Amino acid sequence: SIRRQRQMCIRDRNTGGAIALSGSDTFDNRGIIVLRTSTTGVRALSRNCTHAGFTVNINSAANNLVCPSHNSIFDLNGNVVSGPASGALTRYSASLSGSIITISQGS
Question: Beta partners for 95?
């Protein structure tokens, strides 16, 4: 079992905030979206669209995640709202300690 981990610092303490990290900054080749779920919690989702592997982006205006290549839409839990994607985004283990977020991937 290999465990890969990435740590980052977050200054925005607002619930509902989100950061889109590129693949070069993470262990996921398309990157990771980090969502602030509470003052003490974060959620980390892959930016790799489950339809054709394009990069998913944050759509703050609609409060969802979208793949601009074929217009798949995901909710903030990574679940498909509308296709053509049929599977949820990969969810990574994420924790927050002070201003440090740790994102882990087990394989």
Answer: 102
